[in-house]
């Protein structure tokens, strides 16, 4: 980027204002606690409005999904931060090498300065406010960008932020991909981006000239692996719930299932039965979330059409033939039996309610299938054999794992959230979030009485003796 655009200049001025204010006075413990409390109050005050806004953005989104996965998670995170902040902010004692005693050392958590946060549309509240709260807890100022694909929610979030913080401490900027690109070119002290792997690459490239460190929370294909002999009914129940929560528009949703070949058809039957129990109807069912927009729905329908054209067996949960209300994009939960690997549904992250079932002949083959692909954001082994499970856990490197269930690892205060390899880098939530936005500054304290001067030039016999002693 050679010549800055007017957008670059506008954003640059905003960043400078946040930076100057941070230089003047960085938030102390009391300030951070107050800020977090005010943020929680504002979220509570606007909770109903936020639920309505998210539903408006999706066309229809389950109130229970927004309340649990967006609001409760955000408020839970803020509560957790406030509970532990005093301890996390304390200098951490570090040992010093024996030769330097009686010096002492510590690690002093320092705020980084101004943090940039870019959020996607799928959980538009928590994916903006949780990193924001973590960054505030660590004593930073923040510039945040919500997704342009959830504009009603972004408008309410703008109120939440402006009612909680003065504009030289936290600002929210709204815009599309062009603004996103300009945002990621800003010389932040740290940038957290949540979104697709493709855009994550661009964000990291844009941050590189500034040497801005990045946390990338990306996506990818998260496998569920059903071990031979596993109770299929239980696996079907937990996979159906995890796949259709928010209609599959969840970064850690199980993307596809690896199942022993002989059990594939029984699993398909049980999954469909479970999906019918969870969602007895679709068209008018408030529990079944719509696809966020026509572009995303078209992407999913294209994947499905391609599979059908290739002769893949497709099984759909269609309890009613009623059309959905106008303006809503509904895709029914859909199983695809053994789609070939070259199809889009097996190459790209699905991010919707399509679920491929892939047969395997041996457990080792199933593990090899996962290892040959990008490192997943989440891995869901269903296995009660402890030794085999341990082998799977040691073989697969994933952002996070949940054994015998789906999604719930995401809601734990002290399990960090983050990917690995193509699913991202860095981690946040809880103390990991505090640390992601802090610099643990090593500090050494030299006491008045110490032995270090013994090793100063001119080097003589004492220095030689010391070297001999230390080399042992
Ligand atoms: P996306 O990557 O398509 O878009 C994210 C944002 O990037 C957009 O709002 C846009 O404004 C901005 N953008 C577009 N082009 C840009 C550019 N060149 N430079 C900078 N910014 C640019 O993602 P999405 O569709 O909003 O979200 C879905 C993706 O997010 C999925 O891949 C999903 O797995 C992932 N995701 C990951 C997590 C996680 O915690 N790891 C959570 C939720 C979603």
UniProtKB/TrEMBL annotation:
<protein>
    <recommendedName>
        <fullName>Aldehyde dehydrogenase</fullName>
    </recommendedName>
</protein>
<dbReference type="InterPro" id="IPR029510">
    <property type="entry name" value="Ald_DH_CS_GLU"/>
</dbReference>
<dbReference type="GO" id="GO:0005737">
    <property type="term" value="C:cytoplasm"/>
</dbReference>
<feature type="active site">
    <location>
        <position position="217"/>
    </location>
</feature>
<keyword id="KW-0520">NAD</keyword>
<dbReference type="InterPro" id="IPR016162">
    <property type="entry name" value="Ald_DH_N"/>
</dbReference>
<dbReference type="InterPro" id="IPR015590">
    <property type="entry name" value="Aldehyde_DH_dom"/>
</dbReference>
<dbReference type="GO" id="GO:0006081">
    <property type="term" value="P:aldehyde metabolic process"/>
</dbReference>
<dbReference type="Pfam" id="PF00171">
    <property type="entry name" value="Aldedh"/>
</dbReference>
<keyword id="KW-0560">Oxidoreductase</keyword>
<feature type="domain" description="Aldehyde dehydrogenase">
    <location>
        <begin position="28"/>
        <end position="441"/>
    </location>
</feature>
<dbReference type="InterPro" id="IPR016161">
    <property type="entry name" value="Ald_DH/histidinol_DH"/>
</dbReference>
<dbReference type="InterPro" id="IPR012394">
    <property type="entry name" value="Aldehyde_DH_NAD(P)"/>
</dbReference>
<feature type="active site">
    <location>
        <position position="251"/>
    </location>
</feature>
<dbReference type="GO" id="GO:0004029">
    <property type="term" value="F:aldehyde dehydrogenase (NAD+) activity"/>
</dbReference>
<dbReference type="InterPro" id="IPR016163">
    <property type="entry name" value="Ald_DH_C"/>
</dbReference>
<comment type="similarity">
    <text>Belongs to the aldehyde dehydrogenase family.</text>
</comment>
């Amino acid at each position: 980027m050679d010549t800055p655009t007017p957008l670059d200049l506008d954003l640059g001025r905003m960043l400078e204002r946040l930076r100057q204010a941070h230089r003047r006075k960085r938030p102390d413990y009391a300030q951070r606690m107050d800020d977090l409390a005010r943020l929680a109050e504002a979220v509570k005050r606007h909770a109903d409005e936020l639920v309505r806004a998210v539903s408006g953005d999706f066309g229809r989104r389950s109130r229970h999904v927004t309340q649990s996965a967006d609001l409760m998670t955000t408020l839970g995170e803020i509560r957790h931060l406030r509970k532990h902040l005093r301890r996390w902010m304390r200098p951490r004692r570090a040992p010093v090498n024996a030769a330097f005693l009686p010096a002492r050392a510590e690690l002093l958590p320092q705020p980084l300065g101004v943090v940039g946060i870019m959020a996607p549309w799928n959980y538009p509240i928590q994916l903006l406010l949780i990193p924001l709260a973590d960054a505030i807890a660590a004593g930073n100022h923040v510039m945040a960008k919500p997704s342009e694909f959830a504009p009603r929610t972004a408008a309410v979030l703008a109120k939440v932020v402006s009612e909680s913080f003065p504009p030289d401490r936290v600002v929210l900027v709204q815009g599309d991909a062009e603004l996103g690109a300009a945002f990621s070119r800003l010389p932040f002290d740290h940038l957290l981006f949540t979104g697709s792997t493709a855009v994550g690459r661009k964000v990291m490239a844009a941050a590189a000239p500034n040497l801005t460190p990045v946390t990338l929370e990306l996506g990818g294909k998260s496998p569920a692996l059903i071990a031979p002999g596993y109770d299929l009914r239980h696996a079907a129940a937990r996979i159906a719930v995890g796949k259709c929560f928010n209609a599959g528009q969840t970064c850690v949703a199980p993307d596809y299932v690896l199942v022993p070949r002989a059990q594939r058809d029984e699993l398909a039957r049980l999954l469909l039965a479970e999906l019918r129990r969870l969602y007895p109807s679709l068209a008018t069912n408030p529990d079944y979330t719509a696809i966020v927009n026509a572009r995303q729905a078209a992407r999913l329908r294209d994947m499905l059409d391609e599979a059908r054209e290739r002769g893949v067996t497709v099984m759909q949960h269609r309890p009613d033939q009623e059309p959905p209300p106008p303006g809503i994009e509904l895709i029914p939960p859909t199983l695809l039996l053994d789609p070939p690997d070259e199809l889009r549904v097996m190459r790209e992250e699905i991010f919707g309610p399509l679920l491929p079932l892939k047969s395997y002949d041996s457990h080792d083959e199933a593990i090899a299938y996962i290892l040959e692909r990008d490192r997943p954001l989440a891995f869901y082994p269903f296995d009660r054999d402890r030794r085999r499970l341990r082998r799977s856990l040691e073989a697969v490197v994933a952002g996070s794992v949940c054994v015998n269930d789906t999604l719930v690892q995401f809601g734990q205060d002290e399990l960090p959230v983050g990917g690995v390899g193509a699913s991202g880098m860095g981690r946040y939530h809880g103390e990991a979030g505090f640390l992601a936005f802090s610099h643990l500054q090593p500090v050494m304290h030299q006491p008045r009485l110490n032995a270090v001067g013994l090793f100063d030039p001119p080097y003589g016999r004492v220095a030689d003796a010391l070297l001999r002693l230390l080399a042992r």
